[in-house]
Amino acid sequence: MAPNLDSFFQTVDSNADAFIERLRQAVAIPSISADEARRQDVVKMGMFLKAQLETLGAKMEARPLGKQPGKEHLELPPAVIGRYPAKKQEGKRTILVYGHYDVQPAEKSDGWNTEPFELSVDDKGRMYGRGSTDDKGPVLGWVNVIESHQKAGVDFPVNLLMCFEGMEEYGSEGLDDFIVAECKPGKFFEDADAVCISDNYWLGTEKPCLTYGLRGCSYYSIEISGPGQDLHSGVFGGTAQEPMTDLTRVMGSLVDTNGKIQIPGLYELVAPLTKEEQSLYSNIAFTMDNLYESLGSKTGIFDKKEETLMGRWRYPSLSLHGIEGAFSQPGAKTVIPAKVTGKFSIRTVPDMEPHEVDSLVFSYVKDQFAKLSSKNKLNVFLQHSGKWWVASPNHWNFTAAAKAVEKVWKIKPDLTREGGSIPVTLTFEQATGKNVLLLPMGSSTDAAHSINEKLDRKNYIEGIKLLGAYLHYVAEEPTS
User: Fold this and answer.
1) 14 near 20, Cβ under 8 Å?
2) Which of 51, 70, 122, 338 is 20 to 30 A from 457, comparing alpha carbons?
3) Which residues bind substrate (predicted)?
């Protein structure tokens, strides 16, 4: 039986201006986690969020996460956790939601058209400001959902657990251990029945989506050294084996022009494409023109939508990112660098286990270097890795969300995966043992992490309705 959400929706609409003002107050706090000088602002944002929820009757805590690794003079921002209603309602499902209250750096001089920490709304309803879509708008969406239920006099359909962090844009330091600890018996998150994260985006601008998969990321360095110091090419060119020459030959052997990874055995680790999964791609609202617009060119590898989406989501990719130690400034400099470090990453997919990928990468790089018969020295190593994640889109958590999307947006959502990584998704899945849903509020044009970040007014207000509707549908959705 579909829930009657009319009074809730009407209350959201009538309070839209107040909800935008709440977002304005949040954007005004420059909670930049990567900037030591702004650490107090990050904490201030966490306390703002905590206070907003406490005013609505939620039971909230600011849990310390300890010192920042490598910067022991700095305290990590707290994990702001809470429960609404304050006392657990027996017989109702418990949904755990996650978001983050820190943001990327931003300065007007970076190229912003408006002040990044002053919410600016244009005549088309585009709300510009750092953090508006990533992730302050979605986080405040949950606050607004609670307030709208209260003002509408509508019974809250679930037990809501909340986990909001202040270091997501700096690697979520300290959070994984905290989540694992709090999911154990007797701890704060132990009774979660499912998890919902709103920290991603629609594939386009017109059609909502539910996201059920993310690629992982393994990031590597290749270090090649030889001379004891940088050399003059006019004096030593032709007499010394050059690290840069070796490095470019090794890096050039990793992937071909069309993106095919040249490391033997890597594709054998990839889960085969099933007919069920293949059927999901044809109806997704995406065109090749969408890709060309994003690229600013027609240099895509594939000509068809389905191949392009699978290349982005369900197959691995290898990208070269840069070289340390080489001259990279404008102009000419005739130096032979003594040591250079090349950087590349592999986006991993099911069923690629990170340690198996590492083994293949190290073996291949060493073999390619050996073929050069160089007197230089090689060191190849992993910088960091995060594993891929995939959930079942047939789980009741997803089917409930799909009904909520159709109720609010009058259209069935696309079921999508993403090429990027949100490591905390896998952490929640493994720690809780429950299904995790990615339920985006913003669209593909929001420019998260970039200049002129924005959240459309329509996406914000309708997104509040969607989050609330999701809670009602998930409260009633059968488990089978």
Assistant:
1) no
2) 51
3) 199, 232, 334, 347, 421, 449
Residue 165 designated active-site: no
Q: Which two tokens stand for residue 168?
A: 């997501």
449 is in an annotated binding site: yes
Helix (H, G, I), strand (E, B) or coil at 22: helix
Non-local (6+) Cβ contacts of 227 within 8 A are: 236, 240, 243, 336, 338
Catalytic annotation, pick one of 41, 102, 414, 418: 102
Q: Could you state, in order of their start, the residue ranges of all structural domains in the chain? A: 6-214+389-476, 216-270+315-386
- CATH class, 216-270+315-386 region: alpha beta
Contacts by 457-463, CB closer than 8 A, 24 or more apart: 457/16, 457/20, 457/121, 457/125, 457/126, 457/127, 458/125, 459/137, 460/19, 460/20, 460/23, 460/127, 460/137, 460/141, 461/12, 461/13, 461/16, 461/19, 462/408, 462/409, 463/137, 463/138, 463/141, 463/198
How many other CB atoms are there within 10 angstroms of residue 275's CB atom?
6
pLDDT value for 295: 87
User: pLDDT tens for residues 379-411?
Assistant: 999 998 989 999 999 999 999 999 999 999 999
Residue 17 annotated among the catalytic residues of the structure: no
Q: What is the mean pLDDT of residues 170-194?
A: 96
Indicate the pairing of strand 59-63 with strand 79-84.
Answer: antiparallel
Q: For residues 303 and 324, give the distance between their C-alpha atoms in angstroms, rounded to a whole number.
A: 35
In this prediction, residue 480 has a pLDDT band, given cuts at 50, 70 and 90, of low
pTM summary value: 0.90
41 is in an annotated binding site: no
The highest-level CATH class for domain 6-214+389-476 is alpha beta
For the four alpha carbons of 250, 253, 257 and 260, in that order, the dihedral sign comes to negative
CA 348 – CA 267 distance, rounded (Å): 10
- Please give the structure tokens belonging to residue 254: 């990793």
The 10s digit of each residue's pLDDT in 64-86 is 999 999 999 999 999 999 999 99
Select which of 41, 147, 165, 168 is catalytic. 168
Eight-state DSSP code of residue 136: I
